Amino acid sequence: MKAVFLDCIDINAGDLSWEPVEKLCEFTHFLTSTADEAKSRLAGMDAVFVDSFPIGGDLMAANPQLKYIGIAATGFNHIDLDTAKELGVAVTNIPAYSTDAVAQHAAALLLQITNYPGTYVDNDTTPPILLNGKTIGIIGYGNIGRKFGEIAEALGMEVIPYSKDPERAVKADVVSLNCPLTEENKGMVNMEFISRMKDGAILINTARGGLVDEEALAEALKSGKLMAAGLDVLAQEPPDKSCPLLGLDNCVITPHIAFTPKETREKIIDLLAANLRSFIEGGTENRLV
Fold this sequence. Notes:
Elements: E1 2-5, H1 19-22, E2 26-29, H2 35-41, E3 47-50, H3 57-62, E4 68-71, H4 81-87, E5 90-92, H5 99-115, E6 135-139, H6 143-154, E7 158-161, H7 166-170, E8 174-177, H8 191-196, E9 201-205, H9 214-223, E10 226-231, E11 251-253, H10 262-280
Parallel strand pairs: 1-2, 1-3, 3-4, 4-5, 6-7, 6-8, 8-9, 9-10, 10-11
């Protein structure tokens, strides 16, 4: 079996071993790929691994020998699953691999906003904010949401899952997005949503940038409707200069790095290999289609 990884830069830029995958196939990998490069690199490949590179129906149709797509992440909105099913291409993902890392990063964003330990200077006049006794609404109460909730509870916060009390979750002191991106919830944090949030609330997003209407969020941050936002994801990554959130003092942005601890990336490689091995042996481990 011949396999290629089209965009491994965020998974393994050279500091980890590919041995678990290399034991299973004739393997090549590229840090990044353009659309044109992907067309040539997929030629003759039985399997392809991707992190965030989109695999549409055109690429699948142009490579009828392709039988397997392994996603090196949990999200799968960048893969045309309908066409994959139609063409008999197996697709797998890696659920729950980043729970601890992403929950830890969400907490770090929140603490940077409330305590600013990395940017404090002597002439700062804004006092730290005590989280004990505050409420946090968590939208997406799966593995990551629950883990972040545990951390918030350890800080003395009251956790309100959106699935149990939507209105109260939206009106919490802190609202955290931990849900998948779907067609139904795309841009859900818009002007109407923000209008229902508590004045002076904090928004944390470590899920997907597409959940947020960035123009609406920027306006809310500028007006003071929201006190601050902590984001590890944006609608376009990397952002261009037109992103309205860039340069706002009350918007902490990190470049989609919540999942990148070495331990987490080692786990990704092991699970990529486990999923491929299952496919080769006729199994369905972590199969989406």
